[in-house]
Amino acid sequence: MQTLFVELGERRYPIFIGHTLDASSLLAPYIKAKQVMIVTNTTVAALYLEKYTLQFEQLGKSVATCILPDGEKYKDFGHLHLIFDALLQAGFNRDCTIVALGGGVIGDMAGYAAASFQRGVNFIQIPTTLLSQVDSSVGGKTGINHPLGKNMIGAFKQPEAVIADMAVLDTLPPRELSAGMAEVIKYALLCDAEFLLWLEQNMSKLMAGDADLLAQAVYRCCAHKARIVANDETEKGERALLNLGHTFGHAIESYLGYGTWLHGEAVATGMVMAAELSARQGWIDTVDVQRIQQIILAANLPIVSPAIPLEQFLNYMSHDKKVLDGQLRLILLKQLGKAVITNEFDQNALIAAIQAHQQAA
Amino acid sequence: MQTLFVELGERRYPIFIGHTLDASSLLAPYIKAKQVMIVTNTTVAALYLEKYTLQFEQLGKSVATCILPDGEKYKDFGHLHLIFDALLQAGFNRDCTIVALGGGVIGDMAGYAAASFQRGVNFIQIPTTLLSQVDSSVGGKTGINHPLGKNMIGAFKQPEAVIADMAVLDTLPPRELSAGMAEVIKYALLCDAEFLLWLEQNMSKLMAGDADLLAQAVYRCCAHKARIVANDETEKGERALLNLGHTFGHAIESYLGYGTWLHGEAVATGMVMAAELSARQGWIDTVDVQRIQQIILAANLPIVSPAIPLEQFLNYMSHDKKVLDGQLRLILLKQLGKAVITNEFDQNALIAAIQAHQQAA
User: Once rounded to an integer, what is the mean pLDDT over residues A131-152?
Assistant: First the structure.
């Protein structure tokens, strides 16, 4: 097992990364009072709820559960409210702990509930997908979707601790493994060219579920994210780089309806579009774009989106949280392993980059 | 005009207190970007929306508005969502500013919306009731009600600035002025015995709307609150003292349905119950309880609640945010001007204190 700390002063917290971890002993120091609410979804509950409930009960905790339907399309106000209902019906107080047992959607919703319930209670993350292990469970971004935009409502809420257990990836469907790999590739592209090489060498083993290699990849991604988040917790600057591919990706997800494509799939295609635009700006070569497409294809991820009317695509992009005073800003690549946030791109090049990676209408 | 700063490090902010203040020049340094959303209610909109819209437009801002129905019973998820709808329909971004123009309910909702929209945007408070000027607009507590408990969902969100203009109190209904006076009296009881004397001497002029005396009272209350909040922003300790009377009061409000009694009315009766329990613990004299009842009556506030079945009353109290590991904690008086938070009270004395200040069933 490896332990990585996210250095956020009084909100410093550990990420435990390994295989078949003992949540009970690892989390004991991080849960102060008796009440524990496990928030999970129907899919994960069937696999892991009993196991983790027992581990918390071993600690003498009084465990309640809130089981939500599985999927991004339930990341809304109505289902958030079910968590508050469960907390209040169980008589939970301000010293309770909310545990997110699931992927990014569960982490986002349980985290936002933890930020908001009684103006903030303790929060533990047990991510059960590769995507949430490398990305959404680190750094405290939580929230829900609004019909007019993804993640539009939420909070920065740091957990007390995160457990990233490779054992849970055994039951992860291949499509979800791929979606998580999109975020892994993202770290390589935005800040670690050496890691890109490592991924190119190891992608087939990673996709076959090699637990040691997966743990190495998770550690490396979490280390990058922890460093970036420690420098810029509330995304005034550098942290925005983690959104490489996301503004394009959000447009795809918004158009298709949340949950049609997985988040990681949309991000993968979004990264190709961002790379394409970067190349059209003359910052990277077309060879680099091809290399990016290849690693994304090797992870069984899409490099073209369905046909989306341009005006709608741009309109969805304009709802992005990185828009400042009416100006769209994008994360683009100055070279492989070096991303920047910028509003200095050619609008026609942006349009060409989008259209170059869409299916014909 | 007097300016008071709430000292919260990088979140330090000013409260401007005076008569007929120029919001435009006072707020200019605190609104960075162009988009301003004024959140208000139907009652306040009719009186002040045009005036403040003009003041923001003078600053070159692009002003949108969200007008909610007036009343505590609308402080819920559905109406919070209307603010998000308005923000997204107007295309507002992360650099926008949300202005709360109204009383405590508007401040709580607009503040929680500002905490949550895009994970946090700028926030300005223009409180239009005495209650919100002396209490709810200072210190960053925001939130909404849940059918199972008041203020159960929310966030700590500090504003960039607060404008407390006595001019708006001219249009305040007498019942609302009284409700605000309950919180003014609260500060005297919990930490300022000299102020209690001042209030006893000046209550009739205050209730007649003397603007100079009101400004003095608002300044004194805000100074107390600013000091307490600076010491304990997220209510780990001392800040809980500001809840004197509130646990009892919340039970009354919850039982009657939010909005039947005004919050200040419920707090007034709650303070009498807290004083009664303090006397039964032998900490203050029955003479002190009488003095508290007299100042509350002088502010035209109730000192007895309607009949509420005891079990329900205690059950509502048990949902309080100050409950820790199953233990109810109350703010009680060790002497006039000195409150403590404690779980050391006799359960029978608590019941007797409640029953002594209820109408016969």
Answer: 90
> What is the Cα–Cα distance from A270 to A275, expressed in whole angstroms?
9
Q: What string of DSSP letters covers A81-102?
A: HHHHHHHHHTT--TT-EEEEEE
ipTM of the modeled complex = 0.87
Mutation target among B77, B119, B144 for the A interface, most CBs of A within 10 A: B119
The DSSP annotation for B110-173 comes to: HHHHHHHBTT--EEEEEE-SHHIIIIITSS-EEEEEETTEEEEEEEE---SEEEEEGGGGGGS-
With an 8 Å Cβ cutoff, are A94 and B321 in contact?
Answer: yes
Dihedral sign from CA coordinates of B75, B76, B77, B81: negative
How big is chain A, counted in residues?
Answer: 361
E strand intervals along A195-337: 330-335
- Map out the domains of chain B with their CATH numbers: 2-171 (3.40.50.1970), 174-356 (1.20.1090.10)
| Residue A183 known to be catalytic | yes
Measure the CA–CA gap between B347 and A41, rounded to whole angstroms: 41
By the 8 A CB rule, do B105 and B131 touch?
no
Q: Alpha-carbon distance A175 to A168, whole Å?
A: 15
pLDDT greater than 80 at residue A289:
yes
The DSSP string of B266-311 is HHHHHHHHHHHHHHHTTSS-HHHHHHHHHHHHHTT--SSBPP--HH
What tokens does A33 get?
């009072």
What's the token pair of residue B357? 């200040």
B40-43: list long-range contacts, CB under 8 Å, 24+ apart: B40/B65, B40/B66, B40/B67, B40/B68, B40/B100, B40/B101, B40/B102, B40/B106, B41/B67, B41/B68, B41/B69, B41/B70, B41/B71, B41/B102, B41/B103, B41/B105, B41/B106, B42/B67, B42/B68, B42/B69, B42/B70, B43/B70
Q: Provide the b/e sequence for A47-78 (b: ≥16 CB within 10 Å).
A: ebbeebbebbeeeebbbbbbbbebbbebbbbe
Q: What are phi and psi of B300, to 5 degrees?
A: 60, 40
Is A119 known to be catalytic? Answer: yes
State the nearest Cα–Cα gap between B110 and chain A, in angstroms: 13
**Residue B32, pLDDT score:** 87
Query: In whole angstroms, what is the distance from residue A168 CA to residue A132 CA?
Result: 12
Mean pLDDT along residues B245-252: 95
Does residue A62 register a pLDDT over 80? yes
Q: Which residue of B has its CA nearest to A94?
A: B321
pLDDT tier for residue A314 given thresholds of 50, 70 and 90: very high
- Cα separation values, B104 from B110, B168, B183, B263, B301, Å: 10, 14, 12, 9, 18
In a 3-state reduction of DSSP, which class is residue B96? coil
From residue A353, give the alpha-carbon distance in Å to each of A183, A240, A340.
21, 21, 17
A357 is catalytic: no
For residue A284, the number of C-alpha atoms closer than 13 Å in the C-beta half-sphere is 26
In this predicted structure, what is the pLDDT of residue A143? Answer: 96
Nearest to A116 among B33, B91, B155 (CB): B155
Lowest mean pLDDT segment, chosen from A340-354, B60-74, B230-244:
B230-244
What pLDDT, in 10s, does the model give residues B184-195?
A: 999 999 999 999
Average model confidence (pLDDT) for chain B? Answer: 94
Give me the percent of chain B exceeding a pLDDT of 70. 99
Contact call for A153 and B84, based on CB within 8 A: yes
**How many helices, marked H, and strands, marked E, lie in chain B?**
14, 11
Residues in chain B: 361
For residue A321, pLDDT beyond 90: no
In whole angstroms, what is the distance from residue A263 CA to residue A267 CA? Answer: 6
How many CB atoms within 10 Å of residue B334?
Answer: 13
Question: Given a cut of 80, is residue A322 above it in pLDDT?
Answer: no
Q: Which residue is listed with tokens 């692009």?
A: B62
